Amino acid sequence: MDLEGRIHHNPIKRDSWKTVLTLAYQSLGVVYGDLSTSPLYVYKSAFAEDIHHSETNEEIYGVLSFVFWTLTLIPLVKYVFIVLRADDNGEGGTFALYSLLCRHVRVSSIPNCQLADEELTEYKNDGPVSNDKSVIVSRLKSTLEKCRLLQKLLLVVALVGTCMVIGDGVLTPAISVFSAVSGLELSMSREHHQYVMLPVACAILVFLFAIQHFGTHRVGFLFAPVVFAWLLCISAIGIYNIVRWNPHIYQALSPYYMYKFLKKTQRKGWMSLGGILLCITGSEAMFADLGHFSQLSIKIAFTFVVYPSLILAYMGQAAYLSKHHVIESYYRIGFYVSVPAQIRWPVLAIAILAAVVGSQSIITGTFSIIKQCSALGCFPRVKIVHTSSEKHGQIYIPEINWTLMVLCLAVTIGFRNTKHMGNAAGLAVITVMLVTTCLMSLVIILCWQKNILLAMCFILFFGSIEVLYFSASLMKFLEGAWVPVALSFIFLIIMYLWHYGTLKKYEFDLQNKVSINWLLGLGPNLGIVRVRGIGLIHTELVSGIPAIFSHFVTNLPAFHQVLVFLCIKSVPVPHVRPEERFLVGRIGPKEYHIYRCIARYGYRDVHRDDVEFEKDLVGSIAEFIRSEKSEPHTQIEDLGDGERMTVVGTLSSNFSGIKLCEDNGNCTDTVGTSELREIKSPEILRKRVRFVVPDSPQIKTDAQKELQELMEAREAGMAFILGHLYVRAKRGSSWIKRIVINYGYDFLRRNSRGPAYALSIPQASTLEVGMVYYV
């Protein structure tokens, strides 16, 4: 499946209002499902136990005022007008901010970064700053680049936000579905509904996670209509309640009612803020899902559809409750009590569908952020299934899916009420927003190069609001808020263990790489028999010869005719253009037939399937041989150790270079009608392979010979030489390091996936060699 071309060659037309409005409509189902269902549980969570609805209506007016200003200041002002502008080449989310900072400060969680990566099209760096700001910016950048402690702190902050998003992926489906099903409580006695609600909610959750492997593209067309119908429904009910019960409810929007609320309720009112903040749950999705839409479409959808609908819904509920003070118990203060009895069942059905859509969005977002973490070296490799050949963002991770389902069911069965679920979800939501605020303040200074006072105003204004809510949520730690803390702690330990172990292993490889003189001393045959075929040796190094190669040479009786040191690395940009995919170079003289190939991917890139990747790999080496010293304008990077690398694109992007044909003679992405010259391999029974090359410039005789040998090796087959690296802590290491390396990292390594391109290679074509590293 060729997704690369679709990603880069079909950009959204900014001047097309039809396209923008279509995207705005589609974003309702993907981005705003979670936020739109918040009216189901906000008032119920706010009035759980801390405050009570009195005849004076000061409590309900105060809650409405808090909801209105929280929705206005956080999603509308902070996200729509400020945070959405901090996109990373069109991508958003916590890791997008971290990636943006890494590039501008030259700090990265990826150890094998190169100067050549900074030449990528999407690797944007700002130009020189003005004199009045450059001193502060340069000092801050220098401090971050030199201080390892601050670099680790920045990474931990980003990981904490990421872990809370994963925790939200557990809590949001639980509270959304449970709150939607709670409409049954008004149709039966309290004794009976508790025995019905839990099984129904669990059944819906199991169904929701069971269908994830089909992908959202099969039912995605229903998401936007469902959320739009839900928003239309709650806004219509809100208008009805306002007109019928309290037309003057708009007066409660005044900030004065927040003051009266806190003055009367004091500490209990402050603690109830943990329930009120649930009105902004899902706001982070506006930024996290930015890559699937555009800034303008997301802004239009929220400002003109979602925001007014939610305000009307909350005002309608408050208008109804302001005239109904006889409440049997707190569960009767929920959303459904304000719905007219005649339409309660249809509203219940739409609410359940909307809750499922909102849950689907956060689950998909969790898959996406796990993929980003894995690409940036902060999460063990997991199986990633692309459920759509058209949309690159739709993925499915089986291990994460079933883990989320088990945890989600455990939360639902363990709590059985929206009070504890709301406390847990509230802490997760506000922590993610605090992390975004902190990272955003650094982006304002380092990336946008604005005055430091502007960044301080940003973090003080929005940070103070979020700290207020965070403190209220933290007070509910023993009443459910411990769940996201526990989940985040577990995921944070996993991420940091993997990152630490991976970094130590790379440092060992870097310090113990073999010199080029050792390779030259072996001679063209490497001191052993060279047999036909291509041998792929995976390495994390981008220069030099890995230490495990000497282990191969001393333990193997023969080696392949063509050897390729393959490094598949991620770079801190969302996407790498296909024409900049590979860096190809030569190790040693030509007669050695040893190449280095570095395949570069962004943290949101789709890795092509194994057959296509194999063709691209061989094609990139062939193009390197053809263009070597024959095209003076070819982009070349000097990596040291006598290696010079050439930037080569994929076959689908290389319109003027070499083409690869197999078996039936159909070329991969044959170029137009231009005259081509063929170099064919001898007729044998194996798979026919030929390269099609342009007439001009003429290929030299030695290059033709080298291409001939590469084709013969390709026909003989490709083998993956896999090195099992067992990392152990050195003797004399601290007991913490021994536990982390010998047990923690080793457990994660043994249970993680191998390189994706190696999984499809037949076992007979795989050669495994083990080696113990002491770090």
From TrEMBL:
<dbReference type="GO" id="GO:0005886">
    <property type="term" value="C:plasma membrane"/>
</dbReference>
<feature type="transmembrane region" description="Helical">
    <location>
        <begin position="453"/>
        <end position="475"/>
    </location>
</feature>
<comment type="similarity">
    <text>Belongs to the HAK/KUP transporter (TC 2.A.72.3) family.</text>
</comment>
<feature type="transmembrane region" description="Helical">
    <location>
        <begin position="300"/>
        <end position="321"/>
    </location>
</feature>
<feature type="transmembrane region" description="Helical">
    <location>
        <begin position="195"/>
        <end position="215"/>
    </location>
</feature>
<feature type="transmembrane region" description="Helical">
    <location>
        <begin position="481"/>
        <end position="498"/>
    </location>
</feature>
<keyword id="KW-0472">Membrane</keyword>
<feature type="domain" description="K+ potassium transporter C-terminal">
    <location>
        <begin position="533"/>
        <end position="773"/>
    </location>
</feature>
<feature type="transmembrane region" description="Helical">
    <location>
        <begin position="424"/>
        <end position="446"/>
    </location>
</feature>
<feature type="transmembrane region" description="Helical">
    <location>
        <begin position="400"/>
        <end position="418"/>
    </location>
</feature>
<dbReference type="InterPro" id="IPR053951">
    <property type="entry name" value="K_trans_N"/>
</dbReference>
<feature type="transmembrane region" description="Helical">
    <location>
        <begin position="221"/>
        <end position="243"/>
    </location>
</feature>
<keyword id="KW-0406">Ion transport</keyword>
<dbReference type="InterPro" id="IPR003855">
    <property type="entry name" value="K+_transporter"/>
</dbReference>
<comment type="function">
    <text>Potassium transporter.</text>
</comment>
<dbReference type="Pfam" id="PF22776">
    <property type="entry name" value="K_trans_C"/>
</dbReference>
<dbReference type="GO" id="GO:0015079">
    <property type="term" value="F:potassium ion transmembrane transporter activity"/>
</dbReference>
<feature type="transmembrane region" description="Helical">
    <location>
        <begin position="333"/>
        <end position="356"/>
    </location>
</feature>
<feature type="transmembrane region" description="Helical">
    <location>
        <begin position="60"/>
        <end position="81"/>
    </location>
</feature>
<dbReference type="Pfam" id="PF02705">
    <property type="entry name" value="K_trans"/>
</dbReference>
<dbReference type="InterPro" id="IPR053952">
    <property type="entry name" value="K_trans_C"/>
</dbReference>
<keyword id="KW-0633">Potassium transport</keyword>
<keyword id="KW-0813">Transport</keyword>
<protein>
    <recommendedName>
        <fullName>Potassium transporter</fullName>
    </recommendedName>
</protein>
<keyword id="KW-0630">Potassium</keyword>
<keyword id="KW-1133">Transmembrane helix</keyword>
<keyword id="KW-0812">Transmembrane</keyword>
<feature type="transmembrane region" description="Helical">
    <location>
        <begin position="149"/>
        <end position="167"/>
    </location>
</feature>
<feature type="domain" description="K+ potassium transporter integral membrane">
    <location>
        <begin position="23"/>
        <end position="519"/>
    </location>
</feature>
